[in-house]
Design goal:
Blueprint (H helix, E strand, L loop, with lengths): L1 H14 L4 H7 L4 E5 L6 H13 L2 E5 L3 H9 L8 E5 L7 H12 L4 E6 L17 E5 L5 H4 L20 H10 L3 H6 L2 H23 L5 H10 L10 H8 L3 H13 L3 E6 L13 E4 L8 H22 L5 E7 L5 E8 L2 E9 L7 H10 L3 E6 L5 E4 L2 E5 H4 L5
Parallel strand pairs: 1-4, 1-5, 2-3, 3-4, 6-8, 10-11, 11-13
Antiparallel strand pairs: 6-7, 8-9, 9-10, 12-13
Length: about 400
């Protein structure tokens, strides 16, 4: 497995990634911001792929002292066509600085800004950048990207599922996650150490540079508690009781962890044709390899792939796609529903070992008139139709996404 994955790594990481075409095109018109989790490959993408495709570029990292000084002096090299600014959101007045540089120098330079916090929502003072940039979210590797397949999704069309199984690549993703270092090294000891170091540095270094958190110990404890809650309705009250802190504190910490791309929640779909629950989201992690329980990890892996597809169609193509789940007051539940302009596109139920079609999937298919429904199973290579439901293995279904 390792040699095969290493080959795919060299091709995908050094030459291209799924956002390359969109970012290169948008840089001709505006600035581009790229957000994403720590160690997801933002710097490699910006420098090794985008920078080298453009040709001459200059890279500045706010964490480097000499780079900080150059940024504050606006000391840009005259022969560079692209300026890459990494982690500059740690400067309180970063938006004002970038706005001024862009407005003055946009005819001379293109600007690419990257960061491990959500650059689109931070409001650290300064003038608005409205209309001056496009924002992308860089995700971990998915099955389609690992295979080197370009995105083929078309909204409101059937998923272009793979015509052959890919069990080896799927197993690598399932075991090691989609973050480049542990995935392509494929070493369990490295994975454990990487988890520990990633969380420690995120809490102790990155979060403290931007957020004012009084109790870092409990924030870290909260991050330790979340993997066991993957796929479940998120109860802030239950977390508050376990941590012995206020509801407000837990809500704030969850928001911070979401901002730094550690966890994400998906909300129930609310429609006129069903009596939906309207409050609690379900919890998932950007790095599913932290989840110990195999069925929960499988569900999280599928959730992360679906989120990546939704964000790609939104960030690159401008479609108002969203990821939800289905659950009504009678507790009939389907894991995922993808919508376009709030209209159902396709539903997905995950089954780790069960192949019989979920009754809830059939119920919502009829109730909401969902165009396409899939039951995604762990068994490799499977694909059959039952009662209008496509029962398909994850290694074929996920290959049709992004």
């Amino acid at each position: 497995m390792t040699s095969l994955i290493g080959f795919v790594y060299n091709q995908a990481m050094v030459r291209n990634r799924y956002l390359s075409e969109g970012v290169l095109g948008d840089l001709q018109e505006k600035m581009v911001f790229i957000g994403g989790a720590r160690q997801v490959g933002k710097t490699t993408f910006a420098v090794k792929i985008i920078g080298e495709k453009i040709g001459k570029f200059a890279y500045y990292n706010w964490d480097n002292r000499s780079d900080r000084q150059a940024i504050m002096r606006s000391d840009w090299p005259g022969d560079a066509g692209l300026i890459i600014l990494d982690e500059i959101h740690k400067l309180r007045s970063w938006k004002r600085l970038i706005k001024g540089e862009y407005d003055k120098l946009k005819e001379r330079y293109r600007f690419l800004v990257t960061g491990s916090a959500r650059l689109d929502i931070y409001r650290r003072g300064g003038d608005s950048l409205q209309g001056r940039y496009h924002y992308y979210r860089l995700h971990p590797f998915s099955l389609a990207e690992l295979l080197g397949d370009p995105p083929r999704l078309e909204v409101m069309k059937e998923i272009p599922v793979g015509d052959r199984p890919h069990p080896e690549e799927f197993e690598a993703l399932f075991k090691f996650g989609g973050f480049p270092e542990p995935l392509f090294r494929a070493d369990e000891r490295l994975l454990r150490r990487w988890h520990n170091e990633k969380i420690e540095r995120m809490v102790r270094e990155e979060i403290t540079e931007i957020e004012q958190v009084r109790d870092l110990g409990r924030l870290k404890l909260l991050s330790d508690m979340l993997p066991a809650r993957v796929g479940s309705l998120l109860s802030v009250n239950a977390l508050r009781e376990e941590l012995e802190v206020s509801h407000r504190a837990v809500s704030s910490w969850l928001g911070i962890l979401e901002t730094f791309y550690y966890q994400f929640g998906i909300h129930p779909y609310v429609g006129k044709a069903l009596r939906s629950i309207k409050k609690q989201p379900k919890l998932y992690l950007w790095d599913w390899s932290e989840v110990d329980d195999p069925p929960a990890r499988f569900e999280n892996l599928v959730a992360a792939h679906l989120l990546k597809a939704c964000y790609y169609l939104h960030d690159r193509e401008g479609h108002k796609t969203a990821l939800h789940f289905l659950r009504n007051v009678d507790k009939k539940e389907v894991d995922f529903l993808v919508t376009v302009d709030q209209k159902p596109w396709f539903a997905v139920e995950t089954k780790f070992s069960e192949r019989s079609v979920s009754p809830s999937l059939l119920y919502y298919q009829e109730r909401l008139k969902i165009p396409f429904v899939y039951q995604v199973i762990r068994e490799p290579g499977a694909h059959r139709f039952t009662s209008g439901v496509s029962v398909i293995s994850a290694d074929r279904f996920l290959a049709g996404l992004v």
